[in-house]
Amino acid sequence: MRGKAVIAGIGQTAFGKVPGRSTISLNIEACRKAVADAGIEKGAVDALLVKVPTSRVEMMYGQTLAEAMQLRPRFGGVFDQGGASNISMIAIAAMAIEAGQCEVALVSLADNPRTGSRHAYEKVWGDDADFGWSSVVAGYAMIARRYAHDYGNIDDVNAAIAIAARKHGAANPNAQLKLPLTRDMYDQSPWVVEPLRRDDCCLVSDGAAAVVVMSAERARKLGIKAPVPILGFGQGNTSDAVPLREDLTTTMAGGSAKTAFAMAGLKPKDIDVAQIYDCFTITVLMTLEAYGFTPKGRLRDFIEEGGFEVGGKLPLNTSGGLLSETGMPGLQLVLEGVRQMRGTSTSQVPGARNCIVSNQGGIMHTHSTLILGQ
């Protein structure tokens, strides 16, 4: 399936505080912009896949959105792998198109935890709350603590990841947080749950994003102006709760990337730019190592070889990522990957031809990988 499907259009809303807007309203705005970007009519869309909103779960949400958009999709529904949902939905859309189940698919995500409910992020996780483990950040902090115990101090790497994201976000007029970060500022950032500081943690954001997926052949016939080929995708999932995992420093990211690289016929050395799910900086660190960019415990070598900013060894999260552009879970990273392949990013990597994007859900429970090309 390498290159058989393309992302033909992208759209988004404003990010940050978007008061008075329902997730249906936000989804509709992003979808309308994605369809317009593709240069097609709404009537051409015959599939709709949407991530369930985290802030407020609703039954038959996909049908509610389709009704509001006056669509009658013959394929679609709601998907939930947490933050890994978006790339997985794009993969499902590509496979459905290849199987003849649909021709043009909209994939969309909207949420409003900043002005709505944050309960999904703050809730307790099982009986472990009786011992003080409450909220998502506590789970990631436990993983980060174990990683540091096994492989050494992670402050330099986490700081470099956060500083790069904030630099790129500052150059992005659509970013929620446009404040550059220095190492001194990072070191002075207060602990949220040690060893994770405030600047290691993603934003809480309202917003929506959407993409249009179709076959490369259809894109040619329709004269789509800037289709971006989907070269590979993969996913991996674990059902184990964090306290039950045999190794807290190993996730399914490696298996997900292995599948995507095999489909694309590429290796880590072929990647020019990366959009890596950065709900927390430890997630980026572990993902890049699992993807094979460096041996486990050696990502700090990247700092000595140029780091993660544009012009460095591996430009990372060039629109600001979840740490600076928007904390919404993941589809915005795909949009930035598309912009990099089109050459239209606000922090464009010169000559970039291949981009890898990661999505992750839960507390490193789910993972999905996408490789885009030209």
UniProtKB/TrEMBL annotation:
**Which residues are in the Thiolase C-terminal domain?**
234-373
Family matches, as InterPro entries: Thiolase, Thiolase-like, Thiolase_C_2
Under the heading Gene3D superfamilies, the entry gives: 3.40.47.10
> Can you name one GO molecular function term for this protein?
acetyl-CoA C-acyltransferase activity
Question: Which Pfam families does its entry note?
Answer: Thiolase_C_1
UniProt name for this protein: Thiolase family protein
Which source organism? Tianweitania sediminis
